[in-house]
Design goal:
Two copies of one chain form a homodimer.
Chain A lengths: L3 E3 L4 E4 L7 H7 L4 E6 L3 H4 L2 H11 L3 E5 L8 H13 L4 E6 L1 H14 L21 E5 L11 E5 L6 E5 L7 E4 L9 H21 L5 H23 L4 H14 L14 H13 L3 H16 L4 H12 L4 H15 L15 H14 L8 H11 L1
Parallel strand pairs in A: 2-9, 3-4, 3-5, 5-6, 6-9
Antiparallel strand pairs in A: 7-8
Helix pairs in contact in A: 1-3, 4-5, 6-7, 6-8, 6-10, 7-8, 9-10, 9-13, 10-12, 10-14, 11-12, 13-14
Chain lengths: ~375, ~375
Amino acid sequence: MDNFSFYNPTRIEFGSDKEKLIGQILAEHNVKNVLLAYGSERIKHDGLFVTISQSLTQHGIRYVEFGGIVSNPLLSKVREGIQAAREHQVDAVLSVGGGSVLDSAKSIAAGTLYEGDVWDLFIGKGQIHAALPVFSIMTLAATGSEMNSGAVITNDVTREKFALHSVHTFPKVSVVNPALMQTVSRDYLVYSAADIIAHSIEGYFTAAVQPKIQSRLVESVIATVLETTELLLKDPGDYNARAEFAWASTLALNGLTYAGTSGFSYPNHMIEHSLSALFNVPHGAGLSVVMPAWMKWYHSQNPAQFARFTRTLFGKETAEEGIAALETWFDKIGTPTRLSQLGITEADMPAILENLKGNTRWFGLAETYTQETLTTILKLAL
Amino acid sequence: MDNFSFYNPTRIEFGSDKEKLIGQILAEHNVKNVLLAYGSERIKHDGLFVTISQSLTQHGIRYVEFGGIVSNPLLSKVREGIQAAREHQVDAVLSVGGGSVLDSAKSIAAGTLYEGDVWDLFIGKGQIHAALPVFSIMTLAATGSEMNSGAVITNDVTREKFALHSVHTFPKVSVVNPALMQTVSRDYLVYSAADIIAHSIEGYFTAAVQPKIQSRLVESVIATVLETTELLLKDPGDYNARAEFAWASTLALNGLTYAGTSGFSYPNHMIEHSLSALFNVPHGAGLSVVMPAWMKWYHSQNPAQFARFTRTLFGKETAEEGIAALETWFDKIGTPTRLSQLGITEADMPAILENLKGNTRWFGLAETYTQETLTTILKLAL
């Protein structure tokens, strides 16, 4: 077990109707005037906006609406948000939505209190010494953003997709009400499932130091996803399954499963980023294609861990059986497992390989993931 | 899954040599003058005290020594500590030791900023509105105290053993260096194992609402304890086993495994508190006696969960087999499973039952745990 620091000061308010507490929560933190960040206008129609605005007003908190944040959120929008936050002199940012809105909210919160251009904070040119307090109400599971300090933003001009992290950008309080996630589409549910599994297995399989207790925690998360996804496909209104799915998602990305591990990498995310950058496929769909192919190529490098994975999660023996079981499960829930299902053919491989040249460098994996290796993996995914 | 709030702002600094950072950590928190609470003079001989004092001095931090805290820590000593903290106008409390020292440190930290008598905070007569910041360096695993806000203290006069909890008594930073725990005696290692298991199973078996994901987390903790305790009995110097044991211990009691559960109680701790209050037996030893007896009495009330427990942790089937396997394991590692091994006989039962009258009220279990029921359980433990 390697040395580690674990610190996660986000308070999670989990459960039904918790969004009704938002006014009280902000009042406890002495918030008087908040930037209310959100994505589409959907929240205006489904009653959530009314609930939030009433709760804020009841506690004497003013708010400035800041909508229109899109998936794969953009730097230009973050700059707009910073301008709005300064103009209206807000003293906090409230995110209502999924990870894209929350990542934007964190970036706005840090950028507002930073004198230079906010992009500095993504490229190591500036440091985050303070941020407006961030609060969130989640409407989607599997973003992880609700209980970590990271934010991923795309620079619309350079097309760079970079992240910031800081002790100041943990949400103070995140509201996770599984009932708000019941309207997520069937497709996005299964993509979320693939995403949680991908986040869970990257470290689990690649870490040079992987304590057994951490493997057990990862397996607890994955077992929960396997079970609850099927329950939710049968009955999207199954509150308890939705709740366990949401909590598994939070635990997968709040730092807990990585404590004491070291020497891990994110090859599946690396490959997937090229797919979504080039073909605009949903992140989770790209991941469910990449994972089985990567596993088929990689498993002989860590046979003991693949044996564990197979035995614990699928009750089988060999690595091949475990990988096949996962692939079959992806097929069963209806998330793609082949590039062809994403409309990608062998003719696209040169373009993917070209895009991956930059990606392997950014992920620090250029030596291991040569063009030959990547070709092998991609062919396994055709 | 029930509604819950999860909040745990303690920073864990885990790993070898982390105690050397203590001066820096306190300086980061603007501490100038700290009450250094500890137990026996052992830390003076094994080099730990020198390491700490050098690190503090290096960062210009003064300290006031406050040693002599004993197991099952006493209210009289807490009052002494409060007097010392006030007299020397310290601005923080640093605990160096196990759970007894840290529980005393938390109580001193809260009591120093409370106008009335500190016992008020244990009996609901007073509220904790503030506390001196608490820091800890752990020399023993399985107290859990390093990452929670609770403190258990025994009133030397009334022989009541009660707890305080407050958002103000979370340690700011806890240093957990498994290497510092290598000198823990064989006895205290196995008592610790019993204690972690006890903390894990109370909610697991008694909760009216027990999400499966939370059961999986609990089983991850227990499986780790079962495995690493045996490794440590063979080789006390096995750093990795010591580290996984320590982290399992932290996770068992930092609130994580209770998120989303409800309607649980602590009957094993309730009964054990009377044993240690009356006979001053080590807490873990008392628990390994109480647990199998309580389980034999209780299991028919939650057969599904006992089946899970037996299957997942011992690969067997019936509740009786699971309980027998746990009892056999306790025997194997050498922690007692019978009151007689603690020197307690049937003649002591009236005194225990009398003491439990107050305890059952304090634990809110007076209706369920009648004198008749308690007699049944105690007889199973003879």
